[in-house]
Design goal:
The structure is a homodimer.
Chain A (H helix, E strand, L loop, with lengths): L5 H19 L4 E2 L1 H8 L3 H9 L5 E2 L3 E3 H11 L6 E6 L3 H8 L1 H5 L2 E8 L8 E2 L2 E5 L3 H8 L3 E4 L3 H14 L3 E4 L12 E4 L2 H13 L3
Parallel strand pairs in A: 4-5, 4-8, 5-7, 8-9, 9-10
Antiparallel strand pairs in A: 1-3, 2-3, 6-7
The first copy, chain A, binds a DNA duplex (30 and 30 nucleotides) through α3 and β2.
Chain lengths: ~210, ~210
DNA sequence: GCTAGTTTGTGAACGAATTCACAAGCCCCT
DNA sequence: AGGGGCTTGTGAATTCGTTCACAAACTAGC
């Protein structure tokens, strides 16, 4: 299969969100034009994005809402459950743990890890906080597919190295540092500081 | 001035982070090659990124660490203080409010807003939680430059419309929806659900 | 002050992503 | 059953972003 651009995948997520809304409202078909308007893009872009994966529409009519959402869920890997571990039981870990959208979409948070004696053994929004020392042995038996780094910048690369050694291939990083991993490990970053700097840049440099 | 790509601005943030680290370690010069290695890019990319804004280096030597960090801080608008309001005093709002990196870089959180009677009047990590009903009148007197949306998806577009009407031109959105704003308002989105879907996509569709 | 060794800054080449534009296909109405 | 009106799917054209490659400019050593 041809390599798919990250931007395409992001848009598929956006389309899926609208499709789910349309499903709830009982709509049966939708046009690329409508999806584009909602998603802030163009109808040609929508059709091109979908065309990488197949033909889901009917000419003259549009896309069947249930069919297309089902197809997108499959494409995005939402047709199964994913086991997720969170490293870092601080505020960000807590915000993640309580977010209902994750479980709804099949992301099952199996545990949180921390090194702070105060936190170990307690629960984070119903999720067990375990000693980071147990990390490797737990992973070996529970085999989660996704790890979330929710600790400060300083220890993040070291934690990522440990994650990589366990064989986990997908990591979501909330620490405000650029991390390095082998090519077969996908690392996505959420960096609030960087986004804010994008805003102050825009405010500063506009005509 | 020529339009600068968002990807360029993101990289500038990354470079600045390393430069600050180098400053702390007392290093005086750095090459584009070194910055590239740390930032996960190429030296040509680093030089091209910087060249949009001027010539900061010395041929044969590299860049002066203090000079380049100062230049990047100016470019990214970090040479002044920005007033920020957070809308939504939930878990995400709390995670933001306690994050020390913001104040360090000149983002001053002036207040948080919520509609929940329970929360109004309390404090979020030392920041006053105010009634959302006061929003417009407060903005008119305090004139913050940046608003952060940290509420669930449902009310987010409506809140953005209110923000836009106050004249605020920069918004950071944590709600998992695509929002629409006039072209002169910069909206950056942080969408954890979308990032996770990027990961499950990568796990599902790889050879 | 000259030479060898670096590293920048930047046009030109390349590659990737988006947009255009239109034939092909489908629905609905008469 | 045929025609008009839509909307998809997709090559081609275009735009945007990255990488290449090298002259220009600097340092350091002799």
């Amino acid at each position: 299969m041809k390599r798919i651009a990250e931007s395409t995948v992001r848009r598929l997520s956006i389309y899926l969100r609208f499709l789910e809304e349309f499903e709830d409202r009982g709509l049966t078909t939708v046009s690329s034009e409508e999806l584009a308007r909602r998603g802030g893009t163009t109808s040609a872009q929508v059709r091109k994005d979908l065309s990488f994966f197949g033909s889901f529409g009917k000419r003259g009519l549009g896309y069947s809402v249930p069919e297309l959402s089902s197809a997108l869920r499959d494409i995005l890997g939402l047709g199964r459950e994913w086991r997720v571990v969170i490293i870092g039981a601080g505020k960000i870990g807590a915000a993640l743990a309580q977010y209902r959208g994750f479980r709804q979409r099949g992301y099952n948070i199996v545990a949180a890890y921390d090194s702070n004696r105060e936190k170990i053994g307690r629960s984070l929004e119903g999720i067990e906080i375990r000693d980071m020392a147990r990390f490797e042995s737990d992973i070996a038996t529970e085999r989660p597919e996704i790890a979330v780094i929710a600790i400060p910048a300083e220890g993040a690369q070291e934690v990522l190295d440990r994650i990589v050694r366990t064989g986990i291939k997908a990591v979501l990083n909330f620490a405000p540092v650029q991390l390095h991993a082998p090519a077969d490990v996908t690392v996505r970053a959420v960096n609030m500081a960087m986004e804010l700097e994008g805003l102050s840049f825009a405010l500063t440099n506009r005509e």
